[in-house]
Write a structure and sequence with these properties.
- The structure is a single chain.
- Helix content is 41%, strand content 15%.
- With 381 residues, it is of the alpha/beta class.
- The longest helix is centred in the first third of the chain and has 22 residues.
- The chain starts with a helix and ends in a 22-residue tail after the last helix.
- Bound molecules: 1,4-dihydronicotinamide adenine dinucleotide (NAI).
Amino acid sequence: MFKRMQSMQVQAVHSFQAIGPGNHDYRAFIAIHNTNLGPALGGCRCLHYAHEQLALDDAMRLAQGMSYKAALAKVPQGGGKSVILLPNKLAPAEVDREFLFSWFGQCVEQLNGQYITAMDVGTQVSDMDIIAKQTVHVASASNIGDPAPATAQGVMTGIKAALDFYFSTNSLAEYSSKRFVIQGLGHVGWRVAQQLRQLGADVIAADPDKEKCQQAHALGIKIVDAEDVLSQTCDVLVPCALGGVIDDDIINQLDCKIIAGSANNQLAHEGIAEELAARKILYTPDYIINAGGLIFASDQYHRLQACDKNAVETSYSDKVESIYQTLMEVFKLAKVQGKNINQVANELALRRLALGLDKSDTLSSSNKVSMATKGNVYDAA
Ligand code: NAI
């Protein structure tokens, strides 16, 4: 475990166990990747894992991703993530959630605010409300609200940055001449679909949920089968469903100029970023474009901690808009340095983690990238 921690630069991993109702054995890991920018914030996954090493790896990998996300969004939080291993013989519906999340809330409380938990795969707002009875260090209980509108705002901002960079124009007037393909019409994807339609864009979408598809159809959105969605011809592919969707098979079928969506960990592996660059597909790193939810959660958490609704100005919307600038700088650095976009983003995140938010204020300061740079390796032929 220590080798793995060292290679991922994880600061600490806390492990907890308890015997719950029915003599079931509950285990949890809380991984804290880096707290240089502030206390670690990240969701709690509650799943069955085939082996506890897989759960540990998941926690560490996701905690690292949260550090990078916070650093590039200039959010004063570190990266952390927790996983609860559901007992293998117990179906999720049979879990005593009152017991489980009360216990997990106590685990979080033991860390004295070094880790702030939130919702993730397998957890819901009602679980967070149970945790909130045990600790104040929770950022997605019902008193905070849904982060999806902020995430969707960030995706729209990111799409605009990608269009402006790719086509070297101000894209606002051009949505009506562009085609967008959205995978997943959930909390984020649906909002993005609505906003794109309001801008007059041609939108195609897929979701296994028939009701969502009917609602989208009523907005003038063309619906395609979920299996065919990624290979549609379009300007912008917007993955808002699952992780790992851009893999070695699908990359040969892509017919888009830009990939810009909210789904976490869209690339199946790091090598895909290089492949996308070679194919002149502009990829917006998922952890930059989907940071709106984190920005919102951190902002609301600090507002609540201040115990006064007016004490901390809620400025998350402006911060979400700054995703535009961050992406532009990353795109330009990638061009100037001849590196793929993911690599540049990772290097910048590491730099911010090392120097702090103030000293690394301008991402590109040491590289003297002109903000006036026009044209790029992704220019349409
Ligand atoms: P959601 O669960 O509300 O929506 C996902 C949608 O994708 C569902 O409607 C589902 O039916 C659909 N879907 C599942 N498999 C599909 C497939 N093969 N093809 C097409 N659609 C499929 O999730 P939400 O909140 O909208 O998040 C979307 C993505 O963005 C997730 O990967 C999530 O981790 C990520 N994300 C979400 C944030 C938020 O604030 N909600 C914040 C940061 C990341």
